Amino acid sequence: VPLSVEGVKEVKDAIGQAERITRSLESFLLCSKDRLERLKGSLNTVAARSFFPLLTDDILTIIFEFASFGEVDGKPDYRTPSRIPRVSRRFREVASRLPILQRFIDSGTQSLERLEELTSRHANTGPIFEVRMRPMQSRLSSAYEYSDDLQEKKAEAHTLFFSRLTSSLSSRITSLRFDYYLEFDFVAIEKMDKHFQELSLPALEVLCINHEDPVFDDPDDLYVQFYRNWDLLVVPALKVLKALNVIPRLRPEVLSGVSECSLSIGRHPVDEASAAEWELTTVMEFLSHLSAVKVLTLDLHGALITAENGDLPTVILPTVETLWTSFVGVDFES
């Protein structure tokens, strides 16, 4: 390049040309990446439509059964089994022959019509149903969402669903899970206590009681523990009990048959300045009834859990084989 005005101009022209080529290549790269993603999506669609018809009904049955086992974290998967029959007519026909795909019942997403359909379709099946009870509530931050009228309607719908469920499937429910937020769901819980203080679930093996906010053990608030007198003793009887932010009150003879128990309290503490405290004595008294427990998980979290020196009962659990404990932020000396 000559050291002159013409040389400077030549270099500038070369830089401009290189920049234009760079922008063009970058644009081409973006277009290529977008096209690649579209092709990958098309490949999944084309492959599914090409290969699924080649699978026999027996292979599809195995795939569907694996898809219905649940999520990785062990929680029931209520969505996948309900979506499988919507893929195609053939999927629906295969799924209709698999009662295990229809074993999940969720009051928060399913209607009474869907419940009646499951009841009639699987009238001759054994104890297979896994139930999740929760009010159908979006909890939007609007005045109407929290209105007494709307809460009353949702509570009525919640109890009606459970009434239909237990009247037709009580002997075929193997797992029952309650999910509540006491601040918003107290009307529904009050109605559950009014209508279902006495109940027999002869096939129930797993009971989960989850509260997003703490439910303190107050004798004046026994309505929260509407299940306290349920008959869960018929063989095989209750074997697994899991509770979040509540120390469940169940008949001592029911607790004595539990082989796996998980208790987690304080994970979602309310305002500590205005809240009551969890007493560790109550936790210990609950544990003292687990005379047959083999797997025990105890998770105490937060400064709301307290205990006074020399005030704790001694609990002997000779059957425990696996023990998991977590005491995060707990003040045992306050």
Question: What can you tell me about this protein's structure?
Answer:
- By secondary structure, this protein is of the alpha/beta class.
- Helix 5 (112-121) packs parallel to helix 6 (148-169) and helix 6 (148-169) crosses helix 7 (182-195).
- It has helices spanning 5-51, 57-67, 80-83, 89-96, 112-121, 148-169, 182-195, 252-255, 280-287, and strands spanning 104-106, 129-133, 173-180, 206-215, 240-246, 260-265, 278-279, 295-301, 305-306, 322-328.
- An eight-stranded parallel beta sheet has the order 1-2-3-4-5-6-8-10, covered by helices on one side. Strands 7-9 form a two-stranded parallel sheet.
- It is extended and about 100 Å long.
Keywords:
334 residues; alpha/beta; eight-stranded parallel sheet; two-stranded parallel sheet; 17% strand; extended
In percent, how helical is the residue content? 25-40%
Please report the distance between the alpha carbons of the first and last residues. Answer: 83 Å
- Class from helix and strand fractions: alpha/beta
Which whole number gives the mean pLDDT?
82
Q: Gyration radius, to the nearest Å?
A: 29 Å
Brief overview:
With 334 residues, the protein is of the alpha/beta class. The chain has helices at residues 5-51, 57-67, 80-83, 89-96, 112-121, 148-169, 182-195, 252-255, 280-287; strands spanning 104-106, 129-133, 173-180, 206-215, 240-246, 260-265, 278-279, 295-301, 305-306, 322-328.
What is the fold's blueprint, element by element?
Blueprint: H1 5-51, H2 57-67, H3 80-83, H4 89-96, E1 104-106, H5 112-121, E2 129-133, H6 148-169, E3 173-180, H7 182-195, E4 206-215, E5 240-246, H8 252-255, E6 260-265, E7 278-279, H9 280-287, E8 295-301, E9 305-306, E10 322-328
Parallel strand pairs: 1-2, 2-3, 3-4, 4-5, 5-6, 6-8, 7-9, 8-10
Helix pairs in contact: 5-6, 6-7
